[in-house]
Amino acid sequence: MTLAATHWGEGEDIVLLHGWGLHGGLWSGLAERLQHAARVTALDLPGHGRSPWPPIFDDIDSLADLIEDALPGPCTLVGWSLGGMAALALATRHAPCVRRLVLVATTPRFVAAPDWEHGLPAAVAAEFASRLEQDWRGTIYDFLSLQVRGDERQVQALRELRHGLFAHGEPHAEALRAGLDVLRHADLRCGLAHIAVPTLVVAGERDRLTPPGAALALAAGIAGARHHCVPRAGHAPFLSHPAEVARELLQFLVHGQVQAGAA
């Protein structure tokens, strides 16, 4: 395992993948609610938190490869935002390590297109990329503000994000650039129909980065997927509404049985 990991509890494996510019420690509140039912592992993505850079990634597939190599074995894979897109990429290739899939504030395409209205305008994403080259810290802080905008508990969620931002160390500038490139260019819509594991999609009703429509389209594209929208939540519902997200995930572990033929 080349990626840094934090562990809680014992039992069936749940692996948590964080979003852009952050680290696995931000999952701690949710992990503590799950640790009585499973062994929970939060990974730091390559170049984020305590994970090294290199190894490097330069697209969604190479990011998924590095994550797959770091997984402890067959697991319930929980991804948020960028981490959710990487989890999607693994599930679409039928990776044997993915027994169940949980996608939190995740979209198959982050940037809007003529045939995809549920994304961030391309000009806004390009502006983030340009600003990243000049002031990566300021760009991350602005991105955090977007994540909680509209959430009924946005002050609390933003405080947690900012307080824990560099708790595992500063991210590598090259990793930030690579992660933002993935968000700007990855399009996983064509692979959704190939996902063959039980899937739960969790959305925030007021998410400004991955709008609720993206989650509905995501769930509709995956056969048998369950969808849950957290009322009045933004892009980080596991921080602003941890009890509700934990409850949904635990219910999914009980009722989301592994399909025949899955690992």
Rg measurement, Å: 16 Å
Structural class: alpha/beta
Order of helices and strands: EEHEHEHEHHHHEHEHH
User: What is the H level of CATH, i.e. the homologous superfamily?
Assistant: Alpha/Beta hydrolase fold, catalytic domain
- Unreliable residue runs: 258-263
What is the top-level CATH class?
Answer: Alpha Beta
Instruction: Kindly report the average pLDDT value.
Output: 93
Numbering strands along the chain, what is their spatial order in the largest sheet? 1-3-2-4-5-6-7
Terminal CA distance reads: 20 Å
- Proportion of residues in β-strands: 5-15%
Query: What is the helix content?
Result: 40-55%
Q: Which word captures the global form?
A: globular
Number of domains: 1
Instruction: Give the name of the CATH architecture.
Output: 3-Layer(aba) Sandwich
Give the helix tally: 10
> How is the main sheet built?
7 strands, mixed
According to CATH, what is the topology? Rossmann fold
Strand tally: 7
